[in-house]
Design brief:
The protein is an alpha+beta fold and 727 residues long. It contains 13 helices and 38 strands. The relative contact order is 0.09. Mean pLDDT is 90; it is low at 1-74.
Length: 727
């Protein structure tokens, strides 16, 4: 049996009193773990009362350890521990002041007491000096946006309850509450003259399917809740549940406060980037204003709207045209374009057209990846970002000749749990600000001016400055099924010994048209800290390797093809002499959960599996989840009742009769993307087959199962405990 690793040299250096205190704490935590394992073994699943008690005990145990470590000088554990997750901070959403001298950004940190992630706004000079909070409290403050003259900063805050728009005068610190609205607002955009701020907000509709006449309720009577009526094809959304009839509309408000005024009308969603024209009288945005919009996931156009609410359609090509950005001189619009083909993945290109929609040109036709986040350099060219082989980079293209050049690479580090490719940048007055992390630290703020790059923040140095994390090694190999090159990484245990062979965990990313990279990952580093080599890859279908590679899984997810990509990587690591082939484990979430469940239906090589938030039966999934409207036309050759055999072949449930691998299932109770009904089907099937299995439900969690810090800790520690059980 593999036990959690202990650094004995580290212990020898401590006073005996400290060792006794640590041993007492260790006994408490081990005792709780034994009780949990016993309950699982006896009941097959964790009862509601016990789960609540154990979760509370686990968090308080972590808090005790954290407090003890702080009290005992020098006793911080040298490796990444569960309680460290509560200490993580990450920088996001950098915003460069118009003169290029200051960077405002959002600093996100975890609160161990109320189990939330809090957002605050900080500012720092491009020199790295004067790093200080703009606003930081127990509330959330985010979306900082500079006024055109750089003298004010607009932002969203929950300081007075519901999210509202505020404006802060940077010279005095005086702050004005600008809105008093009922719904959350987004897409904040200052007009060029600084007098008006535009934003988007959801507005309830008074649509009713028919008229129902109910008798009057007697005074003081206590009746049941009113019935709910669902009439839309898109009636639910993960993280939001059932959707009330409502539509995203565009609003404007004076920047010094006043009444917000709705500009757009109609039962359509007017969303995404809002961009002002040079005259401060026109706004540009994207929308699908077709009556059939619910059934057209691959269609939207660019529109303009003036201050009277008059609409003008600018683009009308088939496909998605969105995220318009007007040039400084007001003559051109840069925007994102995707064709309307019903395929699971399509590149998004950078287009430019005249302000009236004429002379459209694809500036990124030579770039075989999706591009985004457009920033004009004067009126001569555009900066943009793309993800290439697991890492985000900033590039530039000229307007006249469509000549491309690279500005910088290495953006990322915003995704804390798993090593998803991430990162963003902003640009003003020859200054770039972007998020960039390392394998051993989440994102900080970096700046680049010319060829000179500097790191402005070190948000996690207090946590990681004295810890050793697992090193990340990059490698490529060929899939056994057809020789396709696959790109992957593996994380070594922090105290790696080349003379030993280690147990291996493969962790499969979601999407499947997403990508991992060589970035910080709390989940996988915790696994490495417990003595595993952790392998992850960008299997066929992953983004960042061109459209051809992404479409290799069209109508094939999951299948023997992606399965071969994973198993070939494992075999390559075994051949390197790194891995004990008798101690292989597999896990993944969402699309990775599908692949995990599919894999254990094809092989018995794994000692144990953890299937997180999976799709088990595609026939039921697309008819019960929030994503069926887009998945059915883009990922399948027809409707479920028309292509029954195809849906069934892609479903892990079709292979469940082969499964002998002990399997844990874990899903959020409120998941609408891969509903709990999918997980329950697999759990019941495995129980009927008498396969050792446990179903872990995460109360209050949607598809983003690890959104709360304790849920992230709980997910990781449950996986490790399950694998440890089957050493």
């Amino acid at each position: 049996m593999m036990h959690r690793s202990v650094n004995f040299n580290y212990l020898k250096a401590q006073p005996k009193s400290a060792i006794l205190r640590m041993n007492t704490l260790a006994f408490i935590i081990v005792f709780l773990g034994v009780q949990a394992s016993s309950a699982v073994a006896q009941n097959g699943t964790v009862g509601k009362e016990f789960a609540q008690s154990f979760a509370q005990s686990g968090v308080s145990g972590a808090a005790i350890i954290a407090q003890e470590n702080k009290a005992l000088t020098g006793l911080a554990h040298p490796h990444f521990q569960p309680e460290d997750i509560f200490e993580l901070e990450v920088a996001s959403d950098p915003q460069v002041s118009p003169n290029g001298k200051k960077i405002a950004y959002v600093r996100r940190s975890n609160d161990i007491m109320d189990d939330t992630t809090r957002a605050s706004i900080w500012i720092v000079d491009v020199s790295g000096e004067n790093h200080r909070p703009v606003i930081s409290s127990q509330k959330n403050h985010y979306s900082p946006r500079w006024s055109p003259d750089g003298k004010r900063l607009a932002y969203v805050s929950t300081a007075e309850g519901a999210p509202q728009l505020y404006v802060r005068w940077m010279d005095t610190g005086q702050t004005a509450l600008v809105t008093n609205v009922a719904s959350s607002l987004s897409s904040i955009a200052w007009s060029r003259d600084g007098k008006t701020i535009a934003f988007s907000m959801s507005v309830a509709s008074d649509e009713k399917p028919f008229s129902v006449k109910m008798p009057a309720k007697p005074k003081g009577a206590n009746w049941a809740d009113s019935f709910q009526y669902i009439t839309k094809a898109r009636y639910q959304a993960d993280g939001r549940g059932l959707l009330d009839p409502a539509y995203t509309q565009i609003f404007i408000v004076p920047s010094d406060g006043g009444s917000a005024r709705q500009l757009s009308i109609g039962n359509f969603h007017h969303s995404g980037t809002l961009s002002w024209g040079a005259d401060s009288e026109h706004l540009y945005f994207s929308a699908n204003r077709s009556e059939n919009w619910e059934y057209e996931p691959n269609e939207s156009d660019i529109y303009s709207i003036d201050m009277s609410g008059a609409l003008q359609q600018i683009s009308n090509a088939p496909g998605l045209e969105n995220n318009p950005v007007v040039s400084p001189n007001g003559k051109f619009i840069a925007y994102s374009k995707r064709d309307d083909k019903n395929l699971a993945y399509r590149n998004r290109y950078l287009h430019v057209m005249d302000i009236n929609g004429e002379n459209d040109k694809n500036l990124s036709a030579s770039v075989d990846n999706a591009v985004s986040n457009f920033h004009w350099k004067g009126n001569a060219g555009i900066y943009y970002q793309q993800m290439v082989r697991g890492v985000t980079q900033i590039d530039y293209v000229t307007l006249a000749s469509a000549k491309h050049s690279n500005i910088t690479n290495g953006l990322g580090g915003v995704s804390l749990g798993r090593p998803y490719t991430s990162g963003t940048f902003d640009y003003a007055d020859a200054t770039f600000a972007f998020t960039k992390g390392r394998h051993d630290s989440p994102a900080d703020i970096f700046v680049q001016q010319g060829s000179k790059q500097a790191q402005l923040t070190q948000l996690n140095e207090d946590l990681f400055g004295h810890k050793t994390l697992g090193a990340i090694e990059e490698f490529t190999y060929n899939s056994s099924i057809d020789g396709e090159e696959i790109h992957g990484w593996y994380i070594l245990p922090p105290d790696y010994d080349a003379s030993k062979k280690y147990p291996l965990i493969i962790e499969i990313h979601g999407g499947p048209h997403l990508a991992y990279g060589p970035h910080f990952t709390a989940e996988l580093q915790r696994m490495a800290a417990e003595g595993y080599i952790v392998f992850y890859n960008n299997h066929r279908g992953s983004s960042g390797y061109g459209e051809r590679f992404a479409l290799l899984l069209q109508n094939k997810y999951s299948s023997k093809y992606d399965f071969a990509d994973h198993m070939s990587g494992i075999d390559a690591l075994i051949e390197k002499g790194l891995v004990n082939e008798e101690r292989l484990y597999i896990t993944g979430g969402s699309a990775g959960g599908i692949a995990t469940a599919y894999a254990i239906g094809l092989t018995d090589r794994f000692k144990a599996a953890v299937v997180a938030k999976p799709v088990i039966n595609w026939l039921s999934k697309v008819l019960t989840a929030d994503s069926g409207l887009s998945q059915i036309p883009n990922q399948f050759p027809g409707m479920p009742w028309e292509e029954f055999e195809h849906y069934w072949e892609r479903s892990p449930l079709s292979l469940v009769g082969n499964v002998t691998t002990p399997t844990m299932l874990i899903t959020g109770v409120d998941d609408k993307r891969t509903p709990m009904s999918e997980t329950v089907q697999y759990y019941q099937a495995l129980k009927l087959l008498k396969v050792d299995t446990v179903l872990v439900k995460v109360p209050g969690a949607s598809h983003a199962i690890a959104n709360r810090p304790s849920h992230l800790v709980g997910k990781i520690e449950n996986i490790l405990a399950w694998f440890e059980k089957y050493e």
